[in-house]
Amino acid sequence: MILVLFTLPTTTHAQWYETQGHARLDKNTVEIARTKAMENALKKALLIAGASVSSVQQVINGLLTQDQLNVRATGSVNSIEIVDEMYNGDLITVTIRADIFPQERKCFAVNFKKSLLLTKSNIMHREQANVGKIYAIDKAIPLQLSKQLNKHSSYTTHTNIIHNKTQFSRLNNSLAYDEIAELSKALAQSSNSQYILFSEINDISFEKEATNSWKVWQQGIYPRNLAMNFYLYNGINGELVWQEEYQDSAPWEFTKRKTIDPFATKFWQSEYGTMINTLLEKVVKHIDENIMCEPSRGNIIQLTGNQITFDLGRQHGVKIGDEFTILQRQNFTSNNGKNYTGFNTSPFKVKVTQLSQKTAVAKTSNNSLFGNIQVDDLVVRY
């Protein structure tokens, strides 16, 4: 069994993972078998976390104060503690709790694209859109980002819901992080997406002084600002993966009384539109950097006998013969009211036998029937 807990909200990438490892005593001493069981448990936690570790960590539990564990990979184990230790004949089972903090990136899932949902942005100061009447820029910018993702992203496939406003900004302004997590998970489930991108337009005001050029000043062309925040959420567990603010300005070449269509080619070919495009290219780069090494996870949407269908397909980089592990979803609320999403690893692995653009069919290798696997459980490829 592996139980992985995600606390919401989170301000760092460090997470606690509680896992079980097993080892046979056989000719081994209890100490050696215990260490092997711990190593087994930690490796399982790393696979689920999508991080790996390269360090020698001292276990600071009373039973194993002097033991050291060496796991060769990338990242860091902040601390490890033994939660439980059980013996059944010659089998030792050790339950550990590890605090894993990824440090450097080594991609194990780089060949797979992750599904991303773009949402409508929110203009935080709507009166700033009066000049040019660019009120629809809250839809135009995400749509332009969609085009930039198509051109420049190597690790995403995406859809958008730019015509429907979400409650993100209201919740974010209220610091309602648990509700944002639930919103992210709901949007992910309804759109079959692994990640959700929210954004806020903080500033589209004009600078007080015209540009330095006398000719430009004479024509009344003033620089217009753009400041935006982007927030990337994991739709599986609702946690914040990445956020960043972007700021720039460029001359507004249009007269102040002219109504401008922010979807029009003329707008995007202007200096202001070009500036936004440059900014969005950076956003695409940063999204790719933050998800390229994450495990590819999909939802099981159909289950029959020894066969499942899940919502990853050819457009995500899945191929015939790819093998996936099944995770059983476990959502619960703690005594203090915090929401958690956990996953238990099942003993089942499946191999892809059929593919479409957006889905895949996979079967167990030995034709064994699934036990407690249900629709909405997950498949994961590391």
Describe the structure concisely.
By secondary structure, the chain is of the alpha+beta class. The chain has three domains: 2-101, 2-Layer Sandwich (Dodecin subunit-like); 114-291, Rossmann fold; 296-381, Beta Barrel (Thrombin, subunit H). It is built from seven helices and 19 strands.
H/E series:
EEEHEEEEEEHEHHEHEEHHEEEEEE
Number of domains: 3
* Count of DSSP-assigned helices: 7
Structural class: alpha+beta
**How large, in whole angstroms, is the Cα Rg?**
25 Å
CATH topology of the largest domain: Rossmann fold
> Would you state the CATH class of the largest domain?
Alpha Beta
- Bulk shape: elongated
- The CATH homologous superfamily of the largest domain is termed ABC-type transport auxiliary lipoprotein component
Distance between the termini: 18 Å
Strand content: 35-45%
CATH architecture descriptor text of the largest domain:
3-Layer(aba) Sandwich
Uncertain residue ranges: 1-13, 51-75, 213-218
Helix percentage? 10-25%
**Tally of DSSP β-strands:** 19
Largest sheet: 6 strands, antiparallel, barrel
Strand order of the largest sheet: 14-15-18-17-16-19
What does this structure look like?
α2 (137-152) packs across α7. 36% of the residues are buried. The protein has seven helices and 19 strands. The strands form four sheets. Strands 14-15-18-17-16-19 form a six-stranded antiparallel beta barrel. Mean pLDDT is 81; it is low at 1-13, 51-75 and 213-218. 23% of the residues lie in helices and 38% in strands. By secondary structure, it is of the alpha+beta class. It has helices at residues 30-49, 137-152, 168-173, 177-191, 214-219, 265-269, 271-291, and strands spanning 2-4, 6-7, 15-24, 55-58, 68-71, 76-88, 91-101, 114-119, 122-123, 156-161, 195-203, 223-234, 240-251, 296-304, 307-310, 323-333, 339-355, 360-364, 378-381. The two termini are 18 Å apart. The chain folds into three domains: 2-101, Dodecin subunit-like; 114-291, 3-Layer(aba) Sandwich (Rossmann fold), CATH 3.40.50.10610; 296-381, FlgT, C-terminal domain (Thrombin, subunit H, Beta Barrel), CATH 2.40.10.410.
